[in-house]
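User: Sequence for Galactokinase below. Tokens please.
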Amino acid sequence: MSAPDVLPAWEPGEGAARARALFTEAFGGEAAGVWSAPGRVNVIGEHTDYNGGLALPIALPHRTFLAVRPREDRTLRLVSSSAHGAAELDLDAVGPVGSPAEVTGWPAYVAGVAWAMEQPGGPAQRRRLPGADIAVVSCVPSGGGLSSSAALECAAAIAWDEIAGLGLIRDAPDGAVSPAEVDAGRAVLAALCVRAENEVAGAPTGGMDQAASLRAHPGRALLLDCRDGAIEHVPFDLAAASLELLVIDTRAKHSHVDGGYGQRRATCEEAVGVLQVRDLREVADDVAAGATLEAVLERLETEEQRKRVRHVVTEIQRVRDLADLLRSGGLTAGGPAARAALAEMAALLDDSHVSMRDDYEISCPELDLAVSAAQSAGAHGARMTGGGFGGSAIAVVDAADAARVRAEIARAFEDAGFARPGFLPAVAASPASRAEESD
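Assistant: Structure tokens for Galactokinase:
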């Protein structure tokens, strides 16, 4: 068997050059600039975001790059290195799913951002955005559960913010802008991207993906409170503990527009109505304060509701527990303390996968095999990550052993007759930003 496929991230300059080259080929002339945004991998906290819960993602070094040139009219022309042909839209004729102005396919994720910005209360409500020619290239695997759609939205958002002079991105390396002010604008853009994905692209996702792409910090996991949008940057440097976060792209494609995701969200909303609570986060908080989960579950009407609620409530607690562990520095403490911390992390990741497989029922044979093969190869915990029904899994492995673990997982996939998996080196990376060849 040949060496497993490792999918490296592009350096910012390489990604910008690729985007500019595609732009010139498609549209002629030069782009005004290149903007990029990362995909994300969620360390723990799946399907908690739309339930008002907690999540713990990191931004990946793998990014989507947009070369952009504003236009004098309201035409949006789009080309992607991963799609055949170009798309052309009128920004005055973009609307939500089900409306006469519905946009289909991947262009909806770009056009939807402009639409959301121009809605009442949006930053471009009183100043219409210019049209644009946009060329898209990406090293974020599409359909891999690593938020390629959010990366596309967030790169488009920061590009239009700068081109239209909206002023929401206020990064200032000299400290002239406070961290709170920097994050405030990014939080606004993240919310707009969520609206674009929900209403124009028709994917009923929560806000974790966009928050990670716009608000994460390098070397940190983003502890996101999905109820109020509050964040905490939690230390996440596995290399300091001689560990690696291995992302396994199963190549089993998924889509948030498909019905399975929406069905689970609807079931959670049904359970909220039966329990007469604000959201399932309220249940999780009550359980954390001493309430009995089983007593809550008995009040629900169906076994499906009980299973979905049990996953969400226990997953929120797992996020809390892992964040506490990372804050403690136990992984780098050395000796028995480090071994105990690593065992605790492994149990949290393993339990999360079992919960998603059995209670939320969003795994698939490829994801289950990725997890079990990683565990058999010596991983310190493994779980599927992302929305489910395909996509990726993660495993914490000894850095010195990563190549062997990759090879054993790839062999297990070959033996099962599955498509060859891909592997991504995952470190906590930087959020969406302007990208140029000189970076």
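The longest strand covers residues 54-70.
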